[in-house]
């Protein structure tokens, strides 16, 4: 006759075998592929009164505003250059570039680090809210974007009360005015 502890151990072992069998039967790659087909992941942020998102694959890092060195002869919105962990980063005030007014520097001001032709560019924004997952099926056109966002924000993701305009970062970085930072 089996002891009580031997019976309990056998029951636990059978439970583990069942977990293993169900785990093997569940094909994670199929559900992940389905999710990647319907989901769009972005970093959401505020630029003045505008709520925007950039694709997560276009963001290298989000960090507090580092100290920077001004570049003589540069446009006002090109704040300067900074050393971020040994990497030279061009710092651009995105609000100033787009809307003509300087982004107020607060405790919530952040730098979104991205790349332009393999080089780091830091975009100053008012506030970063984090990462969000959007359903690609929910995307809607932006009816009347402000002039400064024409061609850069063509669609949006509604989420509750908010509308997150999708900033076309590659379009921004090919704009001749953005590429010519000299005054």
Number of helices: 5
What is the arithmetic mean of pLDDT?
A: 88
What count of domains describes the coordinates?
Answer: 1
| Form type | elongated
CATH architecture: Beta Barrel
Instruction: Show unreliable segments.
Output: none
The CATH top-level class label: Mainly Beta
CATH superfamily: CheA-289, Domain 4
Label the structural class.
Answer: alpha+beta
Q: Roughly how many Å apart are the termini?
A: 91 Å
Question: What order do the strands of the largest sheet run in, or round the barrel if closed?
Answer: 8-1-2-11-10-9
Return the string of H and E elements: HHEEEEEHEEEEEEHH
Sheet-strand content, in percent, reads 35-45%
Instruction: Give the % helix.
Output: 25-40%
Sketch the major β-sheet.
6 strands, mixed
Number of strands: 11
The gyration radius over C-alpha positions equals 24 Å
Query: Might you state the CATH topology name?
Result: OB fold (Dihydrolipoamide Acetyltransferase, E2P)
Describe the SSE topology:
Blueprint: H1 4-25, H2 28-38, E1 39-47, E2 50-55, E3 61-64, E4 78-84, E5 87-93, H3 94-99, E6 110-116, E7 119-125, E8 127-135, E9 140-141, E10 153-159, E11 162-167, H4 169-172, H5 176-179
Parallel strand pairs: 2-11, 5-7
Antiparallel strand pairs: 1-2, 1-8, 3-6, 4-5, 6-7, 9-10, 10-11
Please name the defining characteristics of this protein.
11 strands; five-stranded mixed sheet; elongated; 183 residues; 39% strand
Polypeptide structure, described:
- By secondary structure, the protein is of the alpha+beta class.
- It has a single domain, classed as CheA-289, Domain 4 (OB fold (Dihydrolipoamide Acetyltransferase, E2P)).
- 26% of the residues lie in helices and 39% in strands.
- The chain has five helices and eleven strands; from the N terminus they run ααβββββαββββββαα.
- The chain has helices spanning 4-25, 28-38, 94-99, 169-172, 176-179, and strands spanning 39-47, 50-55, 61-64, 78-84, 87-93, 110-116, 119-125, 127-135, 140-141, 153-159, 162-167.
- The strands form two sheets. The protein has a six-stranded mixed sheet with strand order 8-1-2-11-10-9. The protein has a five-stranded mixed sheet with strand order 3-6-7-5-4.
- A hairpin with a 2-residue loop joins β10 (153-159) and β11 (162-167).
- It is elongated, with a radius of gyration of 24 Å.
């Amino acid at each position: 006759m089996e002891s009580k502890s031997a019976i309990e151990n056998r029951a636990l072992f059978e439970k583990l075998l069942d977990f293993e069998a169900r785990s093997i039967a569940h094909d994670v790659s199929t559900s992940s592929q389905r999710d990647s087909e319907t989901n769009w992941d972005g970093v959401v942020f505020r630029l003045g009164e505008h709520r925007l998102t950039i694709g997560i694959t276009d963001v290298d890092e989000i960090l507090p505003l580092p100290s920077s060195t001004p570049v003589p002869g540069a446009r006002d919105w090109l704040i300067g250059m900074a050393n971020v962990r040994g990497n030279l980063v061009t710092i651009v005030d995105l609000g100033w570039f787009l809307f003509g007014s300087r982004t107020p520097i607060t405790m919530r001001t952040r730098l979104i680090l991205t790349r332009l032709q393999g080089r780091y560019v830091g975009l100053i924004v008012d506030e970063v809210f984090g990462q969000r997952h959007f359903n690609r099926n929910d995307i809607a056109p932006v009816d009347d974007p402000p002039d400064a966002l024409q061609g850069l924000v063509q669609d949006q993701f509604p989420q509750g009360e908010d509308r997150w305009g999708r900033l076309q970062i590659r379009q921004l970085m090919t704009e001749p005015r953005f590429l010519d930072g000299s005054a």
